[in-house]
Amino acid sequence: MKIVMVGSGYVGLVSGACFADFGHDIVCVDKQASKIEALNRGEIPIFEPGLSELVRSNAAAGRLSFTTDLSGPVADADAVFIAVGTPSRRGDGFADLSYVYAAAREIALALRGYTVIVTKSTVPVGTGDEVERIIRELRPDAEFSVVSNPEFLREGAAIEDFKRPDRIVIGAEEERARTVMADVYRPLYLNSAPILNTSRRTAELTKYAANAFLATKITFINEMADLCEQVGANVQDVARGMGLDNRIGGKFLHAGPGYGGSCFPKDTLALIKTAQDYGTPARIVETVAAVNDQRKRAMGRKVVAACGGAVRGKTIAVLGLTFKPNTDDMRDAPSLAIVAALLDGGAKIRAFDPEGMEQAKAALPGEVHYCSDAYDCVTGADAAVIVTEWNIFRALDLGRVKTLMKEPVLVDLRNVYRAEQVRAQGFHYDDIGRGTVSAASKTKEHAA
Question: How far apart are CA 198 and CA 20, in angstroms?
């Protein structure tokens, strides 16, 4: 099939490359000429494991191409996917749909013959209706259908998620459009990927509901971690005890410094705003978003406490900057709030991340010294904090780390290490939700 991907960012590029690998003829379109020129040279603008090889092999095979011209490819296309950004709008936090609607207008002018326009971007309920209205207004003669097909890709595992999805959600109002979408995803039938056919509005809401629920799981286990620290319980055992219940499941029950990235923060906020607009406030999601924002800053205070209550003039080594491993994405990363809190306290920051330092330079506040590796990062530090659980931080030579540091203080915000292992090396070690009963709780117990 001939498919056009409007937008060559994370979702558009991954989706386009994977569709091309299925054998479809894919054209990725982007307004940014420098990005298209780089892609045509084989340079990938984002870090995603396996993506570079997938793009190059399919481009070499002639199934994947890149251009700034939308009109020609759209005229020949069976399906056109809108995969542009929908960032939180300044001022009210609602999803900014200006890029989606601009793409719809351009697509409308280029349509020739029956075409399925597919919203791949994460959009609020009713966006597909507006896209259809825009196109019909501009091209009342055009034959087309508008479909919602939300993406469920995890950064760092996007190619595997696309090729072996948990489910494919297709929201369409016409059988003709469903037939085209079945042909688009036919290669996945061999993997028995479940396809859920719904109304368009149901598909749009499904994406937001899924992300909000996962964000809720993360926030819940983080609050349980705080309670564990007060009562002397182990949050990892609590999470395992919960997760072995098939009704709950163990995924997204890993305590840490809070969620970030390109999806959860903006999608929870967009769902909150949509629910408020329809007069049905999503109070649980509102609380999740508020608690998560507070937690990130609290992690900075946790580092300060591990340093004796003050970090002024002290050097803090920050290991990991991206919001999760295997990506260079710094959007709403916990490190942003943690570093800001430490700088506000007068600390000096040394930082290292395997892939995210270029992105971090534009995102992190204040002066940060970027290092060549983990050992360079901890050299001369009064404390080190693991913020992102990259594999290279899981097996550090702790003896070497201790000799390089000024003070042996390690704050593990991802519970990468076993406490007894680190303390045996002579470190002051602090983690998430695996501590002993606090002095305050002991006082309460004795009083009772």
Answer: 26
C-alpha torsion sign, points 128, 51, 261, 368: negative
Structure tokens at 400: 């070497």
3-state secondary structure the chain: CEEEEECCCHHHHHHHHHHHHCCCEEEEECCCHHHHHHHHCCCCCCCCCCHHHHHHHHHHCCCEEEECCCHHHHHHCCEEEECCCCCECCCCCCECCHHHHHHHHHHHHHCCCCEEEEECCCCCCCHHHHHHHHHHHHCCCCCEEEEECCCCCCCCCHHHHHHCCCCEEEECCCHHHHHHHHHHCHHHHHHCCCEEEECHHHHHHHHHHHHHHHHHHHHHHHHHHHHHHHHCCCHHHHHHHHHCCCCCCCCCCCCCCCCCCCCHHHHHHHHHHHHHHCCCCCHHHHHHHHHHHHHHHHHHHHHHHHCCCCCCCCEEEEECCCCCCCCCCCCCCHHHHHHHHHHHCCCEEEEECCCCHHHHHHHCCCCEEECCCHHHHHCCCCEEEECCCCHHHCCCCHHHHHHHCCCCEEEECCCCCCHHHHHCCCCEEECCCCCCCCHHHHHHHHHC
How many beta carbons lie within 10 A of that of residue 378, not counting itself?
A: 28
User: Span 213-230, mean pLDDT?
Assistant: 97
Dump pLDDT digits (tens) for 33-85.
Answer: 999 999 999 999 999 999 999 999 999 999 999 999 999 999 999 999 999 99
Please report the pLDDT score of residue 192 as a whole number: 79
Q: Output the six-digit token pair for 91.
A: 């001022």
- Residue 445 pLDDT exceeds 80: no
Which residue do the tokens 């060559």 mark? 8
Q: Residue 436 above 90 pLDDT?
A: no
pTM of the model: 0.92
Is residue 158 within 8 A of residue 46, CB to CB? The reply is no
Residue 334 has pLDDT above 70, yes or no: yes
Q: Residues 266-291: what's their mean pLDDT?
A: 96
Whether the per-residue pLDDT at 345 is higher than 60: the answer is yes
The catalytic residues are 263
Can you read off the two tokens belonging to residue 386?
Answer: 């693991």
The amino acid that residue 76 corresponds to is D
Nearest-5° Cα angle at 11, 29 to 277: 105
Tell me the chain's radius of gyration from C-alpha atoms: 24
Residue 263 has pLDDT above 50, yes or no: yes
Position 205 scores a pLDDT of: 97
